[in-house]
Write a structure and sequence with these properties.
The radius of gyration is 21 Å and the shape is globular. It folds into 2 domains: 2-212, Rossmann fold (3-Layer(aba) Sandwich), CATH 3.40.50; 217-382, Glucose-6-phosphate isomerase like protein, domain 1 (Rossmann fold, 3-Layer(aba) Sandwich), CATH 3.40.50. The two termini are 35 Å apart. It contains 16 helices and 10 strands. By secondary structure, the chain is of the alpha/beta class.
Length: 424
């Protein structure tokens, strides 16, 4: 199994890195120009819309834009989702209207920029938002995987970008990296003048590649096994990022993967008790008046029981927020797993250390790791849950006998239904 995981992880990383190394192309260059024009414009808004995993990617870019340009220019960023307002809009007008409603309510104009993200390119709410932008002259960029879907075929945006990787999750990873590259390019162009796209892409890709080399197949095998065992046993799995930032978004995205992709086509899947970090971290709900670093993560662990699993995301496991969370997990008798930029002396067998403090890079590589773990968990769930349903005739091959082939060919290359039929 470890050899199969090592082969699959290497293939996954190479697919993403080699695709990035084959860029930029004219569409990416035009997108960089649009960002460079929109970002420094006073009083405008950059809108970033996506569903599910691509919503998480939109939030990664929003965080990166705010962090990079804080104090540099007065740009505003919106992912279009207020969980209370959007729910009422969806109930009243339909889920396909949620992004268009934001553009209408905020009177988006030709001064703004709208970025539409979709794994399939077929999400109805994005198509309606694109149509609204076309009618009102609002500049648009779209990112879509596979063949680009309807949003690309119908030329519904000013600058359609197709990430032609026929795998939902790998295409999402390429999108996320490219959006971070566009942020860095816009920043350098604003301060130093144009012409930085190629260099930013090459430098950032190298940083991603360097971090991905630290993935250890044996550790991935153990982490995925512990999560699978917890699901089968009905125990809780907590994905927490007490320091916040990009890692908090990746923890939420990975929780989405564990709760959705990890049981794709698994017959009679076990219930998943998955608890994800609030993106607001130390200020959750209606804000938090208890300022101990990591307080919300510790509060979440108040419900943990012995044998539950913690997958901890940390820029530095030696930070006060991470230490407080680790102490709470140990007191609860949890099994502790970790993905970290740096470990600061902590020793645990179930730990991957990426060797970087860069928030964007950490956000990207932990999300890729989450995608890989989701597929490994799915394979192990099929072996443990579906085993009783697999009846082989004489001479039939076990469909799970070759895990490396199964991980590549039998998994999530197809579009997710949620991304094709909005509101499923």
């Amino acid at each position: 199994m470890v050899d199969a995981i090592d082969s699959f992880t290497g293939m996954y990383a190479r697919t993403v890195i080699e695709y990035l190394r084959g860029l930029p192309d004219p569409a990416i260059e035009r997108a960089a120009d649009l960002f460079t024009t929109a970002v420094p414009r006073e009083g405008n808004t950059v809108y970033l819309f996506g569903n599910g995993g691509t919503h998480a990617i939109a939030r990664h870019m929003a965080r990166s834009l705010r962090a990079r340009f804080a104090g540099v220019c007065g740009m505003r960023v919106s992912c279009g989702v207020d969980f209370h307002d959007n729910q009422s809009t969806a109930v009243r007008y339909g889920y396909e209207s949620v992004f268009e409603a934001v553009l209408e309510a905020e009177r988006a104009s030709e001064r703004d920029l709208v970025v539409l993200l979709s794994g399939s390119g077929d999400s109805d709410n994005l198509l309606l938002a694109a149509r609204h932008c076309r009618i009102h002259g609002i500049p648009t960029i779209s990112f879509a995987g596979f063949d680009g879907g309807r949003i690309t075929r119908r030329r519904m945006t000013d600058n359609p970008i197709v990430v032609a990787v026929h795998d939902q999750q790998m295409s999402e990873d390429v999108m996320q990296v490219l959006l971070h590259v566009l942020v860095e390019t816009a920043y350098r162009d604003l301060l130093e003048g144009g012409g930085h796209l190629g260099r930013c892409l090459a430098e950032y890709t190298t940083r991603i590649e360097r971090a991905l080399r630290r993935l250890d197949a044996a550790v991935l095998d153990r982490i995925s096994g512990h999560v699978c065992d917890a699901f089968v046993a009905g125990r809780g799995v907590y994905l927490l990022a007490p320091e916040g930032g990009a890692l908090s978004l990746s923890a939420e995205h990975t929780a989405h993967n564990f709760n959705w992709d990890a049981i794709f086509e698994v017959r009679r899947p076990p219930k998943r008790m998955v608890y994800s970090t609030p993106t607001s971290c130390d200020y959750s709900g209606i804000a938090n008046d208890r300022l101990m670093p990591g307080v919300v993560s510790c509060q979440q662990l108040d419900r943990a029981s012995p044998g539950d699993v913690l997958l901890l995301y940390a820029a530095d496991l030696g930070s006060e927020a991470a230490r407080n969370t680790l102490a709470a997990a140990e007191a609860a008798g949890m099994r502790i797993l970790a993905l970290a930029g740096h470990a600061s002396g902590l020793e645990t067998p179930d730990l991957i250390v990426y060797g970087t403090r860069d928030q964007d890079v950490l956000g990207d590589v932990t999300q890729m790791t989450g995608h890989i773990l989701g597929r490994l968990i799915r394979l192990k769930l099929k072996r443990s849950v579906d085993a009783v349903d697999i009846e082989l005739e004489d001479g039939d091959a076990d469909p799970l006998a070759n895990p490396a082939t199964y991980l590549v060919d039998g998994d999530l290359a197809q579009r997710r239904l949620i991304d094709v039929v909005a509101g499923v």
